[in-house]
Specification:
alpha+beta; three-stranded mixed beta sheet; 20% strand
Length: 80
């Protein structure tokens, strides 16, 4: 899988909520949309909802352009 120009345009057309961002990682056969948990946790409740909606829109836009997409978080405490 390659991150194509169409995917790039689709991703850039979606505006993230203020104070939130994701990173895209091309893993050859799929794309990871990675969010940092500490950035997410600093958002207010309403902004957290907007951030989740943003991630879903990004996932859908990439899939509509042929990508297999995995949403992941980075950081945070693991609960055992």
């Amino acid at each position: 899988m390659m991150y194509t120009d169409a995917m790039k345009r689709a991703f850039r057309s979606i505006v993230p909520p203020k104070g939130f961002y994701v990173e895209l990682v091309d893993n050859e056969h799929f794309i990871s949309v990675r969010a940092k948990e500490d950035v997410f946790m600093r958002l207010l409740d309403e902004d957290k909802r907007a951030a989740v909606e943003y991630m879903v829109r990004v996932k859908t836009a990439l899939e509509d352009n042929g990508a297999i997409v995995l949403l992941v978080r980075e950081g945070g405490k693991e609960q055992f």
